[in-house]
């Protein structure tokens, strides 16, 4: 399913959070969205979800404007892993993931089986019966990721998916996202760590877009020769290039 933003602007309290953003994500593509804090990355995701009203422009999911879709219709098209998830402390992990199946008209047993399968895939099947409030930050993040999978939407929006995870778990999550991408999911991924993107695989096909002050400043592929300079300008640092096992690693350094 195609995702399209056409001249989308969002303003709050005389400040432009998004400023005439044009963006297209075709079915099966992956876009990494990078930029400094306050650049508008999360606002962009919320606009796609229909959670914030646009002041101008239009967001389309497939052939429909997101504003014309009801909650179940939106949930059938796009799923969201927020940067921070709150609430449901007394619910079990399984119940949290089952709730992500709300768009389906199916028996509870079917929802529970799909939820268990999602928990298994993200590596936390053993916490299914534990209350969310008893889980570690990393376990909670994986439960949230399982809910994203259980929703079974064709477009995935993931905001800093490696939050609260140790380095090994971060790599596992990015590898999983890469698998989902190659299975046909369309993904918009917000990240501050450009080096984690190499764990997605298929680096020449990973699109990277820079967002600053609510405006798109560049778009490139992960292997682009210009990307280090573009990232350096975006963040106000010098990006030093190193090679690790034949792959490029970028290290930020403050200009002297």
Q: Main beta sheet, described?
A: 6 strands, mixed
Q: In which range does the helix fraction lie? A: 25-40%
Query: Which descriptor suits the 3D outline?
Result: globular
Strand content: 25-35%
Distance between the termini: 46 Å
Q: Report the mean per-residue pLDDT as an integer.
A: 94
User: Count of DSSP E strands?
Assistant: 12
Q: Uncertain spans, ≥5 residues at pLDDT below 50? A: none
Oligomerization: single chain
What structural class do the secondary elements suggest?
A: alpha/beta
Work out the radius of gyration. Answer: 18 Å
Element pattern in H and E: EEEHEEHEHHHEHEEEHEE
- Can you count the helices? 7
Order of strands in the sheet with the most strands? 6-7-8-3-9-10
Structure description:
- This protein has 256 residues and is of the alpha/beta class.
- It has seven helices and twelve strands.
- It has a six-stranded mixed sheet with strand order 6-7-8-3-9-10, with helices on both faces.
- The model has no long low-confidence stretch (mean pLDDT 94).
């Amino acid at each position: 399913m195609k995702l399209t933003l056409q001249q989308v602007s969002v303003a709050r309290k005389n400040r432009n959070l998004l400023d005439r953003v044009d963006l297209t994500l075709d079915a099966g593509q992956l876009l990494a969205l990078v930029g400094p804090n306050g650049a508008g990355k999360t606002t962009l995701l919320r606009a796609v979800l229909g959670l914030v009203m646009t002041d101008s422009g239009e967001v389309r999911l497939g052939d429909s404007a997101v504003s014309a879709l009801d909650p179940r219709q939106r949930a059938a098209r796009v799923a969201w892993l927020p940067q921070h998830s709150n609430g449901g402390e007394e619910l079990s992990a399984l119940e949290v993931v089952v709730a992500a199946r709300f768009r389906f008209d199916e028996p509870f047993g079917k929802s529970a089986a799909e939820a268990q399968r999602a928990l298994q895939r993200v590596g936390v099947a053993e916490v299914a019966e534990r209350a969310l409030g008893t889980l570690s930050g990393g376990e909670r993040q994986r439960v949230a990721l399982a809910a994203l999978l259980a929703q079974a939407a064709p477009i995935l929006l993931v905001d800093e998916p490696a939050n609260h995870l140790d380095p090994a778990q971060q790599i596992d999550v990015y590898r999983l996202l890469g698998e989902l991408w190659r299975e046909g999911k369309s993904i918009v991924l917000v990240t501050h760590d450009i080096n984690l993107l190499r764990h997605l695989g298929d680096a020449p096909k990973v699109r990277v877009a820079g967002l600053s002050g609510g405006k798109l400043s560049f778009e490139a592929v992960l292997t682009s020769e210009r990307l280090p300079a573009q990232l350096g300008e975006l963040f106000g640092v010098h990006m030093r290039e190193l090679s690790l096992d034949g792959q490029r690693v970028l290290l930020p350094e403050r200009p002297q």
